[in-house]
Fold this protein.
Amino acid sequence: MRVAVVVFPGSNADWDALHAVRDVLGADARYVFHKETSLGDADAVVVPGGFSYGDYLRAGAIARFSPIAPAIERFAKGGGPVLGICNGFQVLTEMGLLPGGLARNAHLRFECRDVWVRVEGGGPFTHQLAQGSVLRLPIAHAEGRYVCDPETLARLEAEEQVAFRYCAPDGEVHAEANPNGSVASIAGVYNEARNVLGLMPHPERAAEAVLGNEDGLSLFRCLASFLEEAA
Amino acid sequence: MTSPRDTLPGAPIPFPGEPDVGRETAREMGLTDAEWERVGFFLGREPTYAELGVFSVMWSEHCSYKSSRVHLARLPTEGPQVVQGPGENAGAVDIGDGFCAVFKMESHNHPSYIEPYQGAATGVGGILRDVFTMGARPVASLNSLRFGRPDHERTPYLVRGVVKGIGDYGNCIGVPTVGGEVQFDASYDGNILVNAFTVGIASTDALFFGTAEGVGNPVLYVGARTGRDGIHGATMASAEFDDASERKLPTVQVGDPFMEKLLLEACLEIFAADVLVGVQDMGAAGLTSSSVEMAARAGRGLELDLDAIPRRARGLTPYEMLLSESQERMLMVARAGEEEKVLAICAKWDLEAAVVGRVTDSGRFVCKATPGYDPLVDPPSARAPQLVVDIPVGALADEAPKYDRPQAEPPAAPVTPAPSLELDPNEALRALIGSPNLGSRQWIWRQYDHVVRDGTVFRPGEADAAVVRVFCERDGEPAREKFLALSVDVNGRHVLLDPFQGAAMAVAECARNVACTGAKPLGLTDCLNFGSPEKPETMWRFARAIDGLAAACRALDVPVVSGNVSLYNETDGAPILPTPTVAIVGQLEDPSHRVGMSFVRAGDLVAHLGAPSRGALGGSEYWVWQTGYVGGAPVGIDLDAEVALSRALLALARERRLASAHDVSDGGLAVCLAEKCLGKGLGCRVHLPSGEGAPALARLFAEEPTRAVVSFAPEARDGVAAICAAHGVPFEVIGEVGGSELVVDGAVAIAVGELAARHHAALAPIVG
């Protein structure tokens, strides 16, 4: 598996993604700078967390105009697996590759802590995880409140595009377990074709015992086996 | 660029439109009359307005350390582990395999009081630059904050602004803020403290220094354009506050963390290209101090062409360009002929960069500028640079004023009421665990990204010190993982009661915190926050605190490798508590040695290490809570006992005997035990350590140092006892982990859930 980790000038979890995929999972991973126009021979793409171009405007809003953006779009439209984490999720919604958008947290503060998410829909990053199983993952964001119009939400639910929902440790989904006010407690969504996943929590920061949490590694394991099966 | 032969002869000219210069102007800029005379002595003539500005910032307390240098010399700064001691942008200690931890702490107190968000943000930006200027990638930050009374009208605004400022800057640039400490005390009502610490990792053979070597080498300006923000920031930070201080708003800098991120990545790439001779960030006193300090370290001169300075404001004068503290800027000296490589890397990162001068052999700081020239005007007028500054570098550096200011021991403090010892210990613990000084800091650290960079092993609240895994990389070799423990501490109340003992206690607590996590302390950085040095009593406290720091650092083998002094922390004549903040970097030999602070298993034994409390409540939170005064007899510290405890804790961790370790500090044994219960919601039943007959209440809340509470599996008991005995550390099993209550026999019985609720809500009255 060859994974391209996109580096915008303000990406800051690019290392986290590279480390999890390359050093922990043992896959081939490399950075692709935003001024490049090709993703090379990548089998999968990670758009990592951070502040893409400073994000003083709206998180991820400028990234869609970057030189690498057309290559990401082609890769996604061609069915290649794309994972957007945190700022990467914001970027993918701004690029129109994922439905909805991310607004400021309901409490208006940056929030960094562990949350629990319930696995919902399947796709290349989650197909081996039991529906309803619960992962503990860290969040670290100020603009993570997932929003979309009612029609989109209805479609997401009907098509089972919701990948993760914020929940209590026991898997129950309720308002107190929702850290940012996301609609329908949505923590992550797939696109219609299910090859693009965006989520606010950071699986790549929860992939090692020494950090006290290996729950996040499962997403990358799913990706690896998905690509193996596809090959 | 002008060539050496172009240097214009004669004295600098006054720049058109600038005010006349005289003794009064000097006073307005914070120079004393004696210092004004000294300027004339060095120049042999009257200075230009720009030159006077340069003298005033370089001779400010903030830049020159003129009142503190004679005392700082007494701090121990050497040791086999020291790679770089004080005097550079940051210090460094060896962490093995040719890598070092580069770290420093700095204050941004005055700006943060005037404008908390930008003040704190740029404090973080400044300390990050100090670290990456050395060639190190920043990997973790801490902060130490002081605010006034929780119910002071300005406190909520200041807390919100400072926390958001620190968070927004660190979160954006992607350096985790992994720990810190906060105290509220009336002495900080009009003068808060924001001390920011950052540690980075570098290959020891690739450290960079702030030196302008090599006559003829080009001087490059890299980063944000220069504006009018922060002019005279260093001078502002060297004066007391009064009711007009809010008018000093224009002296506060404005931060741009995205720009800093670009600067960080570009700098690390430039360093790796091996084209630089030296580099220094433009911090306090901006272009002036970076130029002068680099020239001074190399024993060289520097000539700047101010027409070439990238700028964002029109009509900047030499005075403004030289004194601006616009953020996110670096000054570099490249090897001649390599400037194009620097410019190319800057272009890759979309950063402004320009050649703005060169190194000379004149030993003088020389600036030229064209009157009326402004590159922002289209088309700019013709250039005809004239000499505007010409000052011997030495006059601004080594020969800057240095004062051994008078000291006087303060008269005995007036007797203040003693606290009641009749209270129900349950009520006292309920109140204190939910108080702003002892309650949870979760509201704060949740606003900091403390997990970015995939290295946070112990997060805030999980251990006595933050523990981070760092990746040490060198050309092509696979990264090595190393584990650092980081802590920052001080309690100004104990320093007020006895500056020597209180400062030693700060070092001891910090080292103890690091040892509790299983790490060996390697080095220390300090931030010495005091009132006006012109007050003999403040100076006496400062000098005694230095001696206390020195004694504790020697005893515990933690040399001081970097630091910062912040004086004039007073408003309308009332000084802050003397606050010598210290931060220690330690290293774990192996991650399996790590020890958290919370109880983890029911059935584990609980033991008290160190001499049991005498019930000495001096300086304690209990005392202040009960009386409203910082009072009582100083509790003192036995440094030999501290060394023994530290070594025992480290040995216990290395032999993996412990399930948890937490030192006894603010709030005493009761709060220590409560905190150990809170992490995992596990109770315990213990008895007070045996000891003299002081009332239980006093023994529960006394803050005597050199104690820790540990837990371990019952079968580890003999091993733990043996290690403590071998180190001469008193050891006593006081109970067992389990149940849903914190029970101290005959004194305390409170449900852990209730303690948690109170602890959690502690900051709510301030920040809602």
Chain A has a mean pLDDT of 97.
